[in-house]
Structure formats: structure tokens, C-alpha cells
Here is the input.
Amino acid sequence: MLEQAYHGQCAAEETRHGPAKPSIRYPKLTLFALALGTFAIGTGEFGSNGIIQLFATDLDVSIPVATYAITAYAFGVVLGSPAIILLAARANRRTLLLGLVLLFLVGNGLSALAPNIALLVVCRFIAGSVQGAFFGAGAVVAAYVYGPGRGGKAFATVMGGLTIATIAGSPLGTFIGQHAGWRAMYWAVVAVGLLAGAALVAWLPRTDALRGSSIANELSALRRGNVWLMVTVAALGISSIFAVYTFIGPFVTDAARRDASLIPLALAVFGLGMAVGNHLGGRVADRHGNRGLVWGYGGVLVLLVLIGVAGSNLATLLPCLFGVGATMMYAIPTIQVRLTGFAPDAPTLLGALNLAALNLANSLGAIGGAVTLDAGWGALSTVWAGFVLTAAGLLLYVVTIARRTPAPAPRTLPGNSARPHPRQKIRSTSG
Here is the structure.
């Protein structure tokens, strides 16, 4: 998923920097520092879902009200990250990334101190505003570090931190929250963020080659209707993953009637499914066009029905959690390959839009699940909200843009390797 999803974006950056491979003293350590940053961000995001029952109880609110904090984080990605990208369009990406780490520390540190749900919502919005901007700027740095022809591989390495967060970071954060209090989970995230910040200060290259581009260039993606259609398809379709993931705690304790100590295990099973789907989905997206999205969305719909009907049985619930994570991540590569194909010449903003689509899905899934819970339909009812949203996304994709061709990517004009031309076609490669 991750290599293919950002291939167009990274290829555009490779073109902008010219054909020569840059001289970086510690390229692997630079990528590690970026991956550590995405791990911290992912742990903070997904770890919040695992402790939702804990802060709901401590702050004396219902679980549907507690989901406002999850939704606020998603809106931070959707609204805050693009705003940061535009405000800092010309800033050197090293400076931008370091500033984002500082904002990340502030958002999560204040989350740990929040005395009520209203302030926690505000703090989660601040923390969420970092995510899309960090991933977009990280793509630029990764493409530069690895040089021409290897930008996708570089960014896949960086984004590996997010995958590890779903497998290990989120379950560990939930475990910490259960045994030391939900605030301790956010302090743990701050600690990892400090390590990431120190690594970025030490190993991010200092070079003018990482300067930003003009606001007009970044905004060019927003004028393309296909981009917005793909964002909508992603936001609707992927929402089911969050209509499940956000409520894994209630699934285990209220529906399956098992001890809360099993929640980290359920989260890890879900994360493992995401990792498997991520690996398989990237290959399918590169070789088979629309198949990954159609099969992935279709598979998720079947699994949602199984959870809704028989999820109170833990022996059914756990394999289905693995399956939902795997099938949705199987679909996401195709979504993001299509999105970057429609606008590869707006690299940093497009990276933010990719994450904005996923986090708008997070918001929709959490809101839809909260509605069904408020209606008193039971803990497993959240999957039906996800079913409706994913079915709508699949229908929209098939009807509108399944057969449309991505926009040509930029090319370098003869004699001017630093200036991309909007009509070049960049060939997507696998692996």
C-alpha cells in the first residue's frame, strides 16, 4: 500500500530535484527518524480508540460523547493539516517537520492534562492537525534521501512506522492506559515523540533542496474533480474500519462479555490484519487497476454482516476483526494510487489530502457508530453504520470514476531539470 500509494507524489519530487542522487550522510537513520515520528503519531491516534472507555468513565461522559475526541482528531487531520501545509508552503521541509513535532508534543501533552471532555476534544484536534502535514512533508524528505527511482520504497519505509503502531503501539498504549490510567498513555506518546524529535534534529539533512513550493502549485490539486471524487470514495468506504476499530473495547467487554484485558489482544489482531492487507494490497493496486478497491470493499461488507450477526462469540469476533483490517487495507492502496495518479504534481498537499480522506473516514465511522449506540441498538450495531457507508463508497466509485484515467504527471523540460512539466507521464513500478 504505502509504496504504491505515494509513488506518484515521490516521483514528482524526484523530478523536481533532478536526476542526481543526493549525498546524504545517514540516509537510513534519516528514514528511521521519520518512521519513528509516524510510529508516535499512529500510536497516539489508534491508542486513543483503545482507551475510549477509560477516559469516558474518568471524565463522566457516555461512550458516544467520548467519541467526540476521536472525531476531533480526524477533523484536525482533515482541516488542520491542509491549512498548515498551505501556510508553510515555502518553508524548508526540515523546518516544517521539526515544527510539527513540537505541535505534536503540545497536543498530546495537553491531552494528558485535559480536565474535561471539551478540552480533550480541543487537544485532540491540535494533535490531529500534525498528522497529514507530517506525512506529506515526510514524503518529500524520503524521496530526496533515496534519490531518483526509489522514492516509493523510501516512503514505504517511513510509513512502516504507522503499520507498526497498529500492531504494537496501539495495543501497548491501551495496556499502559489500563494499568496506569488513560493519561499515562498520552504521556507515553509524548515520550516517543521526544525521541522522534531528537532523531529528526540529528539526522534530517540541512539543504535548500528541501525548500517548499509555491501555494499555487500545491493548490493545483484542488481544482481537479477526480481528486475530490476519490477523497469522497475513501471517506465513505474506509469509514467501516473505524466503525469497528473505534469500538473494539465495547465489542469485547459488552458484546462478547469478556474481560477488558483482552482488548489489547483484539487490537493487535486487527493491526496484524492491516499489515497483511497492506502487503498484499500494494501488489494488487499496481497490477490490477480497480480490483483491489472493489474486492476489498466487498470483502469488508461480508465481514461486517458476520460481526453484526455473530460477533458476540469471541471465536467469531477475532477472525472477523483480522479480516476487516486485512480487506480494508487491501482496498486502500488502490484508492491512494488513483488519488496520487490524478494529481502527482502537488506533492505535500496531496500527502495531506491522502491522510485527510482516511481521517474523514475515521470521523464518519465514529459518528455513525455513536448514533447507533445512542439509539440503544447494542454494542455491535456500529458495524451496520459502517456497512451503509462502505456500500455507498463502493457504489460511488463504480458509477463515477472506476474507468477514468489518471492525469499525466509532471516531466522535466529539456535543459531545466529542476522544473516539472505538467504533461509528463510517470510510469508506476512495483516493489
In short: The two ends are 10 Å apart (CA to CA).
